[in-house]
UniProtKB/TrEMBL annotation, chains A, B:
CDD domains the record matches: RLP_RrRLP (cd08210)
Matching Pfam families: RuBisCO_large
SUPFAM superfamilies, per database record: RuBisCo, C-terminal domain, RuBisCO, large subunit, small (N-terminal) domain
Protein name: Ribulose 1,5-bisphosphate carboxylase
Molecular function via GO: magnesium ion binding; ribulose-bisphosphate carboxylase activity
Domain Ribulose bisphosphate carboxylase large subunit C-terminal positions: 123-372
One GO process term, biological-process aspect: carbon fixation
PANTHER family in alphabetical order: RIBULOSE BISPHOSPHATE CARBOXYLASE, RIBULOSE BISPHOSPHATE CARBOXYLASE LARGE CHAIN
């Protein structure tokens, strides 16, 4: 059975110490017992992690690739990620910089159901950047949010996305909100002949999620926004793997910041907001854009976009979705940076337009079209 | 309605900048729109976060306490934590150092169902440290794991806990393993007259968790080990809040390391492994012990233990459970450090004893009793 591999950056003064630490990771992530107690046979030969390669990666840094057995990772995303970086996430000076699922884990976790082409087909936008205005603020009632959704769909949105802070609060309870907004977007589409999609934020206690997923689908939601940092990456996978449900998933980075912010722990930006999201099955991955309210650099954002769209996998290419401080003024720069296969989140500044919010979306569309025309 | 409050450590060169950042957090964590777009009335007065207090906290550091509305946090743990640190977790130079739920959120999330006294009552250990050997390694079959569970219960374990890496792998599928181990521990208890508890690791895809929780209860498991870093803190709460289920929860730190490892992001150790676990409803919180394989300091571990047991809440005091490198040799030091209300995890080194594993547990009990006798 093909093993999967994880590449770690180990911070250590010299190779000998990095090797010792790599062998310790091999134990920690699998059997979690001292080396001399590991039973011979199947456990030692198959289950125990294996250091496949280790070498220098710059001053005081080493790259170690370890392989693990699919038997160890089982069939759940939670256990797959548990083997990748469960306990070792608590070690200082250790960062995941690459994941190669291999044939067997790729079969168990085939990734995005829709991917770039699938999402484009759903919203009828075969080329050019996709525009996703965000319904907010928290505190509005369901009618007001649905009204904004209607105006956004009328204005030419590709995806009407809810703010990640809209969950199941009393001001706009999940089911009421989803029902009203789905109806509003459907009405707008009927009027324009367009195909704007509606992605509510999946809410609910764990034992309500199943019911809420089905409710959203039946009410006419086209996809779901999921917060893997709070609901777990397994929730993304549960939706992506459901053929009958057949809904695309957009993931949001809430609560995930500490995984990327320090260079010597967590995951590289592209692994967290690209690779892991793809393995879990997200079709669109939201992340904080360079130049917005968060401090991600140009290189980090480019790395995320690459990891989302890399033709080599894992699974189908997915859409990167930079958010935070996006505006018409930046459209040309953003199109130059991200190219065509991207979902632009348009946030709170659009609300300044009030009932004319659709004009803001139309302006963004015109700006993106101008970039494409100039390139052609 | 009583607002809840979160205290952040802000890294900034001067107070004026820290104040600007605190006001930005108030927006980011609630309405997530520019200040000038916040609608007057209910949203501005109630939903918008409020900077209640801000002051210096040492060189280049400031403490800011913000209050939020329970209307904003709703009724789910996910959304409560989303307001506490969702998007702001992606800001550099910002760390959560305290959470005060206040009356209303304490009512919605009353914390541990059992707490220290409840767990002690269940396992019939009114005083002294509790001993929890861990069933492993991954790769053994269900019969072998059940056999170790039997020997541990015979040897005087208070809690027979499964390794966090035992999920639903083919070598020892969750249901088979739980059934056999629960029966083995029950048999040992019948033979000794003891009351060792059995905590399997909750496994399954999100849509299997409900069934697996009930299966474990019906098969005779006494509590559940839950990995909130992978399954979400809501899963802890879902179990803790189920009066009919009535099972204690032990939480494990897998995948949570990056939240604490860097001093300028994430959560203080006590908040992550104490406060948040308590709010979610854990009765026992596992964390990496000082002097083990992980780099937590004495002060960090003491801070965690304090946050777990603080009589001021939130909710009932819970049991800290240091793990990693625990042994009989360290029993006296550990008892001096942690006192009585603690669960000692005994891991892989016990396996060296093979069929005599119970002797290792008895030796740990004798060492802890000796400390108590010396103190009395």
């Amino acid at each position: 059975m093909t093993r999967f591999s994880v590449t770690y950056r180990i911070f250590a003064p010299e190779l000998a110490e990095a090797k010792v630490r790599a062998e310790a990771i091999a134990l920690e992530q699998t059997v979690e017992i001292p080396r001399d107690v590991v039973p011979a046979g199947f456990i030692e030969d198959e289950i125990l992690g294996r250091v496949e390669e280790i070498g220098s990666d710059g001053d005081g840094q080493f790259r170690a690739t370890l392989s693990y057995s699919p038997h160890s990772a089982g069939f759940e995303i939670a256990q797959f990620f548990n083997v990748i970086f469960g306990n070792s996430s608590i070690q200082r000076g250790l960062r995941v910089v690459g994941i190669e699922p291999g044939e067997e884990m790729a079969r168990r976790h085939p990734g995005p159901r829709f991917g770039i082409d699938g999402v484009r087909a759903l919203c009828g936008r075969p080329a050019g950047g996709l525009i996703a205005p965000v319904l907010k603020p928290q505190g509005l009632d369901a009618d007001d949010l649905a009204r904004i959704g209607y105006l956004c769909a009328r204005g030419g949105a590709d995806i009407v996305k809810e703010d990640h802070g809209l969950m199941d609060q009393p001001m706009a309870p999940f089911r009421e909100r989803v029902e009203k907004t789905a109806a509003a977007v459907t009405r707008a589409n009927a009027e324009t002949g367009g195909r704007a999609l509606y992605f509510p934020t999946l809410a609910g206690q764990p034992d309500q999620l199943e019911g809420n997923i089905r409710f959203a689908r039946d009410a006419g939601a086209d996809g779901l926004l999921v917060l893997p940092g709070l609901l777990g990456f397994g929730t993304v996978s549960r939706i992506a793997r459901d053929r009958e449900l057949n809904m695309p998933v957009m993931t949001h980075p809430s609560f995930l910041g500490p995984y990327v912010l320090s260079p010597d722990t967590g995951f590289d930006h592209g692994v967290m907001f690209g690779t892991l999201q793809r393995i879990a099955g997200a079709d669109i991955s939201v992340f904080p854009n360079v130049g917005g309210r968060f401090g991600f650099s140009h290189a980090e954002c480019a790395g995320i976009a690459h990891a989302c769209r890399d033709g080599a996998g894992p699974g189908r290419p997915m859409l990167p979705s930079p958010g935070g401080g996006m505006s018409v003024d930046r459209a040309a720069d953003m199109a130059a940076m991200y190219g065509d296969d991207v979902v632009y989140l348009l946030g709170g500044s659009l609300l300044r337009l009030g009932e004319r919010i659709g004009e803001g979306i139309a302006a963004m569309r015109a700006a993106l079209d101008a970039v494409r025309a100039a390139e052609a």
